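Q: Hand in one record:
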Amino acid sequence: MSLSGSHPFVCFYHSSTQPVDYIICVLYAFAVREKSCLTFRLLLHCWLKSDFDQEMGGEHLRYYPINLDIKDKQCLVIGGGKVAERKVETLLSCGARVRVISPELTPYLQGLAGEKRITHTARGYQTGDLNGVFLVVACTDDPGINTAVSSAAQEKNILCNIVDKPNLCNFIVPSMVARGDLLIAISTAGKSPALAKKLRRELEDAYGREYADFLRLMGAVRPRVLAMGRPQSENEAIFNRLVYSDLLDWIRDGDRVRIDRFLQEVLGPEFGLSNLKVELKAER
């Protein structure tokens, strides 16, 4: 079997300037000639890796970005200070069941424990505390405890974050900007928390509360549009028209008249804010 210029892999190579694409084509030619399954597997690996590298702009990531659903999951925070406050608050906001182990708590954490929003164990960390835990965060300045928690979590395959000790973690927490369902995460892989904080502040200025309202609106619009049974290309055109419109400006200005007029123009007379039951909270 010869490799002709009309073959899809040859056409792919002719249109590419990437060295890895040349390797892919050579592997393919060898695999066809030798009927080698192993070479086909290597070819598939190279091809998928090439696609991933191009998607990521050629960058190799230290950490895999992921949004984790921890609703109703048992999460453990070891430590009861100010840092623990922030960790507990974030975990609770995501719907986790939170237990805190610490001899003492800040007044804020004491309040949460009094309201039964968290469970408090008033002592230091002990072996076995990670039993039944989905995720653990250690916020202590005790190297011995940090190492013990990290080792126990590794043995039990538990998600573990030791604050400010990335070498002891199997995940790190990015700096975040949250606007309702919009979540923008910034990570420097632990190299510069100061830069992550700077970028977060810039993004907080650039992305205001109107984005939360916009996503509530899209959350109400999207299922109704999809239920109409239009072709995917038409749905995509509608959603792009909404996204690339001045809706965000009108939401920020609280201009309900223009919002209703535009929605009804694009989607139909039944798509006003009142019918969609969307409340705007970002009005000036």
Remarks:
- DSSP finds twelve helices and seven strands in the chain.
